[in-house]
Amino acid sequence: MTIPVASLYRVSTAKQLKSNEEDSIPLQANVIREFVAQHPEWELVKEYAEEGVSAFKYSKDDRDILQNVLADALMGKFKILLVFKADRLSRKSLEYPIVLWQLHRAGVEVIAVADVPGGKKLELKDQYDKLLRFIEGWQSETESVNTRIRVSHVMRQKAKQGCWTGGRPAYGFRLSGSKKGLPLEVDEEEAAIIKEMCRLYLEEGLGSKRIAAALNEQGYRTREGRLWTDTRVRQVLQNPIICGLPAYDRTKPGNTPTSRVRIKGYADLNNFIVPRDQNGNPKPVPEYSIIPLETWQRLIRKMQENCTSKIQKGETLNPRAMSSSALLTGFLVCGYCGRGFISSGQNWRKRNGKIYPCQKRVYRCVTHARVGGGEKLCAGQGSYSQKKIDRIFLQELENFLSGLNCEDLLQYIEQKQVDYLAEATNRLKTLEKELSKNRKIYNAWVKRLDDYFANPDGSLYSEQLLAEKVNEYGRILESLEKELEEVKSQARVEKHRRSQLMEFSMRAPQWFRLFMEAPVETKKQMLVQIISKVVLYRDKIEIHYNVDLAEFLGREEKLEQERFELKVLATF
């Protein structure tokens, strides 16, 4: 009677898929098939292959092929599972024995073919076996961690030398066809578009949205053949590689094993690794320089100034959105794809010259309106009646502002403050203890230094050591005192907001009356003071209030964080 056998092959990277790579899938398959051939009573009935799947990054539950193996094991499709090495199952110390236990519970014997001559049975018969399996998983995980550290170190060293560290070439560049020299070369067509972007931004004074529109009107498209957007324009211009500085560590791990997100301050050269000279100044790679470093730095400064200017003015809408006749253009966001809405529907003029207003204006999702096949990318409606959405929004706005109860509002804020104040109180006590303890240590070292100057020969410590200790604890005290003052300042701000909120609740109904009497453009300027966005779904809207109390109440002087945030849900 033959025994059904299955095999599981796995490699972590696409490079290992090649047959000439060590531990490649073809190599694993050859070794395991030869191993099966040595056992006449065995029959290889199933082969599973995980191509480019890291058993360190991904958990067992996220590995579809491994889940298929476990499911088939429970169905009795095989009695023996062969793996090339034990770490093919998992490289996580806690998951490795669990996977083995699941297989053994299904009546499957697991053998690592290449770990020892003749194969190694991965058993869980007793406590000793279980301990060995845990140690194997721990060793595999440790090896993966150390490999990641080594690779990260190598990448950092390469980045410091101006070498490209891999990945998809940035816009403006392509892989070099030459085996000698640098791995990347400038793509002249894309580089010309980058130079045009810089000219429009610095010389013409256009913003990223208007630059995207200008590029689209001239027939330019992204590398993927899509329309340019303001976000894509900024991504291209903010990448320092366009001025000859390949950057490393501008991103950090995202919410999934393979995703990356930008770090805070991703346009500041001090926050990541770029090639530098002996004095620590950025040193561009000439072959990669599409624009001069000075031009790129001027570009970044202007972007930051524009952003700061908008924040200081309380503006969150671009000029086009502010001038639109649709009330919520610039505030409205699709709850399904996250993009904004545009207003559609034009007035029409009769032959006698009389203008008739359009009665069927709609808000159109940008994904549906401007992206080919947008209905496949966004699960929401393509358009919504402008009249209906405005009516619902205004009703909810009136209910919120006119129905504000000072006590309810304060209760809401106090609920948000109670955790903070409790945490702040505990933090204050901890800081004061730390400050007191380190102040005693600091004073003790100062006294030892004074004793040294009085009698150098009788001191147990050298002058250098004493000076270093005094400076060290002096810096610790300075840091603790600064943090203590910041916590106290934040507590004062939280208390100040109570009186501001009381005044806000009394003025809100009058504010709404003035709002309704104002023209659309003025309405938008007023909404900027209290609304951050309005998220639109098929059957509901979410109004995100973000009230700048000082702006709303007309205060010239502002305290930090003098805002309160609130999300209100309204169903159709």
CATH class of the domain at 3-158: Alpha Beta
Total of DSSP H or I helical runs spanning 4+ residues: 16
Q: Roughly what fraction of the amino acids lie in strands?
A: 5-15%
Class inferred from helices and paired strands: alpha/beta
Mean pLDDT, to the nearest integer, reads: 80
Unreliable stretches (pLDDT < 50, length at least 5) are 311-315, 553-561
Strand arrangement in the largest pleated sheet: 2-1-3-4-5
CATH superfamily of the domain at 3-158: Resolvase, N-terminal catalytic domain
Instruction: Characterize the largest beta sheet: strand count, sense, and whether it forms a barrel.
Output: 5 strands, mixed
Radius of gyration: 32 Å
- Give the N-to-C terminal Cα separation: 67 Å
Taken from the alpha-carbon principal axes, the silhouette is: extended
Helix content: 40-55%
| CATH topology call of the domain at 3-158 | Rossmann fold
CATH hierarchy: architecture of the domain at 3-158: 3-Layer(aba) Sandwich
What's the count of strands? 18
Explain how this protein is built.
InterPro entries: DNA_bind_recomb_sf, DNA_bind_recombinase_dom, Resolv_N, Resolvase-like_N_sf, SSR_resolvase, Zn_ribbon_recom_dom. Residues 421-497 form a coiled coil. Keywords: Coiled coil. By secondary structure, this protein is of the alpha/beta class. Among the domains are: 3-158, Rossmann fold, CATH 3.40.50; 183-312, Alpha-Beta Complex (Hect, E3 ligase catalytic domain fold). It contains 16 helices and 18 strands. A hairpin with a 5-residue loop joins strand 12 and strand 13 (355-356). Helix 6 (208-217) crosses helix 7 and helix 12 (386-402) crosses helix 14 (463-517).
